[in-house]
Amino acid sequence: MLVEKVKGASRIAAVSRNARRAGLAPGLTLADARARIPQLWVEEMDARADAALLAAMAEDCDRFTPVVVIDAPDGLLLDITGCIHLFGDEAALRRALSLRFRRAGVSVRTVIAGAADAARALARFGRVAIVAPGADAEAVRGLPIAALGLGAPDTLAISRAGLKTIGALADRPSRVFAARFGEQITRKLARMQGIEDAPLAPQQITPMLWTERRFAEPVGRIEDAEASLSELAREACARLEERREGGRVFEAAFYRTDGAVRRLRIETGRPVRDPAVVMRLFRERMDALSDPLDPGFGFDMMRLCLVETAPLDPVQPGLDRHAVEADEVADLADRLSTRFGAERVLRFVARDTHDPERAARLMPVLREAGDTPPWPALSEGEPPLRPPLMFDPPQPVMIALAEVPDGPPRAFRWRRMEHRVVAHEGPERIAPEWWREASGEARDYYRVEDAEGRRFWLFRVGAYGAELPAPRWFLHGVFG
Predict the structure, then answer these.
(1) Can you tell me the distance from the alpha carbon of 99 to that of 90, in angstroms, rounded to the nearest whole number?
(2) Strand pairing of 43-44 and 2-6?
(3) The predicted structure's pLDDT at residue 98
(4) Of 53, 192, 243, 470, which is the most buried if we count CB atoms within 10 A?
(5) Cα gap 480→390, rounded to integer Å
(6) Is residue 379 within 8 Å of residue 464, measured between CB atoms?
(7) Which value, in Å, is the radius of gyration of the alpha carbons in the chain?
(8) Block mean pLDDT (10 aa), the chain, length 480
(9) What domains appear along the chain, each with residue ranges and CATH number?
(10) Per-residue DSSP letters for 24-79?
(11) Which pLDDT does position 445 carry in this prediction?
């Protein structure tokens, strides 16, 4: 028997079959239970361990269907639509699922129904194993009101009104109960009868398409697992070609005989459907694993899911080979992102702002840029308006000589070195973004070149004047 603390008192949380036959039930205080049966075996309930076990069971159920929902605290919902043919029929699937958990030492009750709420209620309060299509409303009529999952006060109030079963409640006008208990009760009743669909939130993202292999004998060698994964990749890419699509996110799942599931995910910067490219990225991912892929007693199933796809039409490469070069760069970005992580391989994208410090930002190279503005176009033979190397924060410099009131510096000292200016452009006044909180002061920027041919980007804050403080000069960037 398991007990837990409820408002400072120890109450029964779960009982065994023998304890239930002796009259004990969840919710009873531990003192009352010991008064009835002094020789009780009591253990503290571990909610975290129960949640971990339920999550592990959900991972293992992924071998039956990719849509698995945890129905806490003690249930799982499986959407087996489209998966029944893999096991023969519904009865065979139910037997395989029940037998797998019984062999693991877990007692389960399984029900197959058309509505998720009907299956949940029948598993906890009914005796039906498989509900015929369209018979959900009839199957749940004999269940108690508690099967609705309402709160204890609402359940008690409905029972006191003389309604003991779901069927008795369904025969009454719904508007009366909605006015008394709210729309929740009518919604729950409609979902249990299969009249209204209940939204499901699966543990894993439902893939766009997937291929899988089930092995009569467990696969114990990594080389054999890679060969099977290569076959799955060829099948998936062939189906993508039929749909004129390419994959952006691939996930390979390796199911061990002991119930452990290992998942490997790869992402690409552009849609692909070349099996060789997919396998090369998966091998990169496997080589970069800190915890190597361990088959244990063997994999009895493997699945390759395409989590995200995008349209992909055949591309005719141009005579200038630019398309080939773009593909090679994209392949390199995919391999680096797979080996080091997508968040570590970054690129610059432009921002729609006149502030040079915010004109660019970093983002993963595999992520879509979205509605980012294009980089400013440069005239042929003209130097860039902004230096490729910018300091954050700008570095202060000492001005030895400058023209006033708005002239450039004639000489300045930076990092203990004197630079004599021989050419300049400016000033370019850049005002701060006034709508931001820390807007700052306006700056006057100059592009200057020293006697050795080095080019710098300087700016001045403040102005010269008899009653004004001396302006400050900063070096913001260096041109290549």
Answers:
(1) 14
(2) parallel
(3) 92
(4) 192
(5) 11
(6) no
(7) 34
(8) 82 84 85 85 88 90 89 90 88 92 90 92 91 92 89 82 87 78 83 85 79 91 93 95 92 91 90 92 88 89 92 66 69 86 85 82 80 75 80 87 79 91 89 74 90 92 73 89
(9) 2-45 (3.40.1170), 54-192 (no CATH), 209-329 (3.30.1490.100), 389-478 (no CATH)
(10) --TT-BHHHHHHH-SS---EE--HHHHHHHHHHHHHHHTTT-S-EEEETTTEEEE-
(11) 92
Q: What is the pLDDT of residue 468?
A: 65
Q: Buried (b) or exposed (e) across 427-446, using 16+ Cβ within 10 A?
A: beeeeeeeeeeeeeeebbbb
Residues 6+ apart with CB under 8 A from 305: 66, 207, 209, 210, 250, 251, 252, 253
| Widest distance between CA atoms in the chain | 101
Are residues 45 and 2 in contact, defined by beta-carbon separation less than 8 angstroms? yes
Q: Tokens 């050795």 — which residue? A: 452
Q: Whole-angstrom Cα distance, residue 443 to residue 474?
A: 10
Amino acid at 343: E
* 3-class state of residue 287 by DSSP: helix
Query: pLDDT at position 449, please?
Result: 92
For 375, the token pair is: 């980089």
Phi-psi region at 88: left, alpha or beta (left = phi > 0; alpha = psi -120 to 50): left
Amino acid at 164: K
The whole-number pLDDT of residue 318 equals 57
Task: Kindly provide the b/e burial profile for residues 300-313, where b requires at least 16 CB atoms within 10 angstroms of the residue's own CB.
Answer: bbbbbbbbbbeebe
Q: CA of 70: how far to CAs of 128, 355, 394, in Å?
A: 22, 49, 53
Alpha-helix residue ranges (DSSP H) falling in 135-221: 136-139, 152-160, 166-170, 174-181, 183-192
Structure token pair of residue 192: 């249990």
| Distant-in-sequence, close-in-space partners of 32: CB < 8 Å, separation ≥ 6 | none
pLDDT at 152: 79
| pTM assigned to the model | 0.69
One-letter amino acid for residue 195 of the chain: I
**HSE-up of 336 (CA within 13 Å, CB side)?**
15
Beta strand pairing call for 409-414 and 261-272: unpaired
> What is residue 82's predicted lDDT score, i.e. its pLDDT?
84
Distance CA(143)–CA(127), nearest Å, equals 10
Q: Contact at 8 Å (CB) between 309 and 247? A: yes
Contact yes or no for 203/69 (Cβ under 8 A)? yes
Q: Give CA angle at 203 (197, 205), nearest 5°.
A: 85
* Cβ count near 41 (within 10 Å): 8
Q: What's the pLDDT score for residue 384?
A: 78
Which DSSP category does 358 fall into?
A: G
Task: Give the residue from 159, 50, 70 showing the smallest Cα distance to 120.
Answer: 70
The strand pairing partners of 419, in sequence order, are 412
